[in-house]
Every structure is written in C-alpha cells, then in structure tokens.
Amino acid sequence: MCSISLSRSVRTVFVSIIFAASAPVMAQESATTAPPAGSEALEEVVVTATKRAESLQAVPLSITALTGRDLESKEAVNFVDYARTVPNLTFTDLGAGRERISIRGVDSKLGSTVVGYYLDETPIPDSSSVSAERVAFDPELIDVDRVEVLRGPQGTTYGAGSMGGVIRIIPKRADPMRRESSARAELSNTDNANVPSELFNGMLNAPIISGRLALRLVGWVHQESGFNSKQVATPSSLAAHNATGAPLDFEKVATVPEGTAYGGRVALRYTPSDWFDVEASYFYDSQLYRGFQDITTGAMNPNDALEQNFYFNTPEQNRNRLSIANLKSTVDLGFADLMASAAYTRRLLFLKEEAGEALVFVGFTPPLNAPPITEEGRDISSSVEVRLSSTRSGEHGSDLFQWLVGVFYDYQKGWTNVDWRVPGFTTAFGSLVGPVADDNLFTGHFLDYYKQKAVFGELSVYPIDRLMLTGGVRWFKLSRLDSTPQNGLFAGTPNDGSIPNPYAYPFIRGDTNNEAYKGVIRWQQTKNLMLYAQAAEGFRTGFGRPALPTACLPQAALLGNNGAAGEVAGDKLWNYEVGIKSDWHQNRLRVNVAGYRINWTDIQQSVFLDCGFPLELNLGLVQNTGAELEVESRPLEAVTAGAAFGYIHSALQQDIYGIPATKGKPLPDVPEVTASAFITYDFHAFGGWAGNLRGDYSYTDRSLSTYVANSSFTPDKTAISLLGARLAFHRERWELALYGRNLLNDVERTALERDVSLNVAYRLRYSVNAPRTFGVSAAYRF
Q1: Number of Cβ atoms within 10 Å of the Cβ of 58
Q2: Confidence class for position 172, pLDDT limits 50, 70, 90
C-alpha cells in the first residue's frame, strides 16, 4: 500500500509540473448575470437551450441550469455528483463511469438512447454494446461553464433529437482577450476504501494574437479508490464444498472498483472579426477500473454487505474511453446567426467479468476455474449540423417573427465482440455435452450501422403583445443495420469452432421515415410571470436483436416469442406539458412548476428470463404522468436556499403477453419521487478570507430493475437519501475547501448489473452507490 501511495504522489507532482496552470470548476461570467452589489435578488441565469442566449425564466420549457459555480460548490466532478438534485432526471447507476440516463421516466435498456447527451454542440454516442444496456459515457466535469438539462422531446431544436430530453455540458471557451491559468488538487477518503482518492486538474488560456486567436488547454488525472471487498473461496473450503457440500470460506484479495481516469481538452479559437468565430477542439477521456462497483447477493451475502464473493480470483475490468474532434464556426449574418459544427467521435467499452458462477448456474459442477468472459465494443461516429437562427434587435416580444432551421447528418458504426472460451471444458464436461470445438462456450461478433438524416426547424409568431405561438417540425430518416452472428455451446448454432463473420451474416434492417411535431403557447402575463403549454413528439428507430441461447427458448415460447434473431420495432411518444415560471419579491424568490403527461407506444423493453438472458421486444403502451417543482430564494444577501421535487407515475396500459398482472406496473428503473434541497451561507471569515457554507440533500425513491417472468414485481432498488456539506474559504486567488458526501452513509442498490455474463438468478450482482466520503481541495488562480 505504501508503494501505491508513493507512486500516486510522484505521479501527482509530475502532472503538476506539466500542467503548471490548472482549472478549478468555476462559473464563466456569461453564464449568469449577477445582481448589483448589496442586492438580495437572485442571479439571472442565461441559457442557450433554444439556440439563442436567453434568460432561463423566458424559455417556455422545463429546464434546469447548473452554472460552473453551482458545480464547484457541490464538488461535482461527474454526472452522479449533480444528477440527483435535478427533478425527474433519473439514472441507472452502474458505477465506475457508466450510467443509463432517463428523464420523466422515459427509460429503456434497448435501442437508441432516449436522452440526448451533448458536449457543447456534439452529441455523445451511446455504446452499441449488446449487453451494457446503452450506457452513457460520463465525462469529467472540468472547466465547465454550465450544464443544461432540458425535459421533454427536443427534436425540432437539436440536430440529434431526443425522446425524453437533452443534457448539454458546455465547456468554457478559449478567450483571446485575457491570459489566465489555475490549478486545483483534491484528496478524499471513502469509508471502507483501500487508499485515498486523488484529483488534479489544470487549465491554461493563452492569447496568441490579442483579441483574435487563443489557445485553451485543460487536463486532469483522477485516481479513484475502491470500497467493495472482493473475496474468493479458500482452496481448502472449495475442495470440501465440492466433495460434501460444506459451506465456503472466503478471503479478501482486493478492493474494487479502484481505477484511474485521465484526459484533457484543447481548443484553438480564431475570431478575425466581430461577425466570424471558429473553434477547433479535441476532447479525450479515458477511464479504467479494475473491477465493478457492485456486490453479489444471495446466500453468500444475505445482508448486502459491500462484498463480492467468487469461487476463484478471476480478474475483472471495466474500461471506457471517448475522444471527440470538433470544428465549430459561427457567422453573424445580420438578419440571422449561422452555426456549423462537424465532429468525429470514437468510443471504446471493454468489459471483463468472472465466469465460474455462470458455469455452475447452467449445471456444470463442480465449478471450473474459467477465464473471464470478455466483451469489447468499439464505435465511431461522424456528425454534421448546420443551423440558421434569426436574430432579434428589439425588446422582448417586439419582433413579429422568430425562426430557426437546421439540417443534421449522423453516421455511426459499432463493432462488439463477445468471447467465452474455457480451456479444459471438454475434458471436464465432454461426457455430458459431447466435444466442444475449441472449448468455445459462446462467441459473438456483432456489427451495426446507424444513419440519420434530418431537417428541423421552429417558427415563433407574436400576434399580440405578451403572446407567443411556436410551431416546430422535424423530418427525419433513420436506418439501422444489425448483424448478430454467434456460435458456441450456448449459442444454439452449430459449434464448429469457426469465427463468426458479421459481414457475411444476414443483416436485420430497421427503418423509420417520419415527421415529429411540436407546438408551444407562451403567455407573458408580467415581466416576472410566464405561463406556457406545449405538445412535442419523439421517435426512435428499430433495431435487430440476436437469437436467444437454446436454454431460453422454452420460456420465450410461453411469452409468445420464438427466440430467433429478428427486429424490435421503432417506438414513439407524445409529451404534453403545462408550466409556470415566476419571480417574486423583487426577484428574491423564484418558483417554476410544470406538469406533464407522456403517451409512449410500442415501447422497446426487455423481460428477464430464468435462463439468465433478457428477451427483447415491444411492450405496447405506457403512460407517464407527473410534475416538477423548483424553488430558489434569497431571504438575506448572505443566504440562498432552494428545493426541487419531481414526481412520476409510470404505468403499463396492458399486461405483458404471458406475464399476468403487469398492467399498471411502472417501467423498470423509474422512481416515483425525486427530491432535493440546498442552503448556502456567505460570511466574513478572518483577515481577508471570505467563507461559504453549503448543505445539500437528495432523495431518490425505490424502483424495479426489470420485468421478470413469474415475479411478484417487488421493487429491488431501495430508496436513497444523500446528505452532503461543504465549507469553503476564498481569498484573492486562493480557494480552500472541506467537504463531505453521503454523510448519512446510506448505501443502497442502484442497478441490477448485467454486463457480459448472464444473470445468475440465485446470486445477482447489484451496483451500489459510494459510502460516506470526506475530502479537502485547494485551488489557485494565476
């Protein structure tokens, strides 16, 4: 342990020398408009959710904006650090940088992503992995101007479109007007951890030609500790267990999911005139974890202790990598603003998981010290968006028309290879199943192509004072090709030892050629009171599913499916919403509320089978009804407080074929209630130091992980209550802070883990949230 700590310290010093200037996450001035000195009014947050810079309170849309200052005060460095504070933003937290995101209960383990996830103007593609349930990549939140969360379909405004909503991470831009740099270091310790976690990030903004050309460099290194004990059976107890069925004894061999994340962003911005701006940027983020953030349940861990219990010390790994090259330009044409963005994205998701228990589950006992199952998914994506939006020269509402039109093209190709070869399997079990070529239990080489073309736009009309009418339309053509060849003992295909060739295998095609519509009515009753109503439509294309293993076919037949490879059809939804945005008491109190109903038809979902694999299908109609409430106030100049509440009632409108009593059940991974609250207090500390004290609380309701045949449908993901606090001191260029996360030490199941191997019904693996953590941070601006 000493050598590990020493190597980390040397690495941190080395990176510190390289990045002599590094950035704390701080707000950029353009993100908010501060009230006059001495005022108790709340800051006005400026967003670009509608592709124009507008006050958040003027946008007829349920939206949450988190400025860089907000993120810093939460010590937020990734998605999970802020997501639970946003109403009706829910996620399946698989831990270690993998989340499947949903908004307003629009959640699906299958098909294309239901939430658009953007880094500036570039959509981040989800993984095409066959078993990782379309997880999003979770980039480090370093040098970020703000995060915007838009609820409801956004296909008439955003190029990539979305069914449930959009999340935008907007980084700070290179500034040709000033030279700046800063550095930040953080040290934290989590209960049950093996070593402390360390974070170092850095930023340098350097004008090359004053007022015209600037370079911005950002870098980070994040060493994360593990807190789950990985335990394996002792050789003597395993021998006794195999001979007589005696209980197993376990010994700790590691703490997981210890890992490292590192990356950076470089941006070169050129502004030769007031009307033209171009920026080339490259973003890179690599995350490597030596294990998974889950526990094994069942008889070997009846109390859900932070333990993984395995037969053998099989190495596991979770590797996630993303790179984005982007060229973006903006041109002020006078009557309109032109934006063009082109991006090339590469993504890697590599998973390695123990396989001994899976062999026992399917009947091959005693357990064999099998090598891990591996899955490697690689995706490349090219996207182009060109958008033209009108400019408005008068006061709010003075122009008769406001419009936006854009075109979008996206091409994505994904390869996924799954391999489970167990040397010695034929020798051990050939008498039961016959010879197995190359001891190949399962090999799958999957290939998919995804292409989208879209034309989208909105037109807003102001027929009378205070009234705005908006109509939007999106015409799109989506196509997807899937090739799913597989072989091996469990593949249900001839096991001849050959390597599946996806290019020579029949492709399953899914096509959608349709329109999506949006309509909005906004009534500006007063300067501080706005009412709105909207209806918006969202679509997804279909996709090809691989064949089920032979062992799954009998139960699939009971559910009306033959288990063969085929297409899961596309789905669509309508989102109906009404809302009020208001400011009160000289802008010292802000209250925003929205209510909605979503009708989602032909929903793409999965049903968990007893064989350990999911059946992918279209389930029919689901209705999600709910509301969001966000309140923020500044009763005193030094005190700011707020609260947020989200409610979702999700209900299937019919029974799942072959599984009675499912009508009225919610979608998996959709909690009914999300809530949060915060309070901050600014004070004079000592000497020239100013202080800030902040407290945060969040609550996420329980939910169901998956539909299971012959199940009671009891929620298996329990409610989570998280309490955090931060005490910070500022003086000139310095900031020092002490913080704590999950102070109540509430550790709960957050997701049913299914990565590579099948789900072992009597020993399921559940991801859990991190235990109580305390940390210190220091930042200096040069």
Answers
A1: 19
A2: very high
Using CB atoms within 10 A of its CB, is residue 690 exposed (0-12), middle (13-18) or buried (19+)? middle
Q: Tell me what pLDDT residue 396 has.
A: 46
359: three-class secondary structure by DSSP: helix
Q: Which residue has the tokens 């992503």?
A: 113
Q: Whose structure tokens read 């979902």?
A: 605
Instruction: Provide the pairing of β-strand 307-310 with 228-233.
Output: parallel
Q: In what side-by-side order are the strands of the sheet with 294-296?
A: 294-296, 765-768, 749-752
Torsion of CA 293, 298, 301, 306, to 10 degrees: 20
Predicted pLDDT of residue 32? 57
What digits encode the pLDDT tens for the residues 194-217? 899 999 999 999 999 999 999 999
Dist. CA 43–CA 48, nearest whole Å: 16
Place of tokens 């490292």: 260
Paired tokens of 703: 């939910």
- Assess whether pLDDT exceeds 60 at residue 30: no
Confidence at residue 15, expressed as pLDDT on a 0 to 100 scale: 38
- Going by DSSP bridges, is the β-strand pair 336-353/317-332 parallel, antiparallel, or unpaired? antiparallel
Q: Residue 639 — left, alpha, or beta (φ > 0 → left; ψ -120 to 50 → alpha)? A: beta
- Residue 329: what pLDDT? 97
d(Cα 620, Cα 313) in Å, to the nearest integer? Answer: 44
Residue indicated by tokens 């996360």: 741
Residue with tokens 């107890």: 237
Using CA atoms, how far apart are residues 195 and 213, in angstroms rounded to an integer? 43
C-beta atoms surrounding 463 within 10 Å: 8
β-bridge mates for residue 636, sequence order: 639
Between CA 504 and CA 464 the distance in angstroms is: 62
pLDDT value of residue 9: 41
